Amino acid sequence: MSEPLRAKSGELTADEILDILREGRRVIVEAEMLGGVHEVSLRHDGTTFYCDTPTTLHKHAEEEEMRNCIVKMGYAKDE
User: Fold this and answer.
1) Closest of 74, 67, 78, 59 to residue 8, by C-alpha
2) Which among 18, 10, 9 is positioned nearest to 40, based on CA atoms?
3) Helices 14-22 & 63-72, crossing angle to 10 degrees?
4) Which among 45, 75, 77, 39 has a CA at the least distance from the CA of 63?
């Protein structure tokens, strides 16, 4: 498995993140939440998209759902 790409919130666009996930790589996003800076792991297993935060694991069956999550949570920069 290849090394995950590490980025800070707002460093990549949602399209760039999704392209990397479709290639089979994970994206580790450094995000401010819960009063501190935490790492969020984004990944795709070929069927399901995952957003693993410090408090929960979100699963998305559709790419558009994952895009909405990435944008809503502020992981991507404005396009």
Assistant:
1) 74
2) 9
3) 140
4) 45
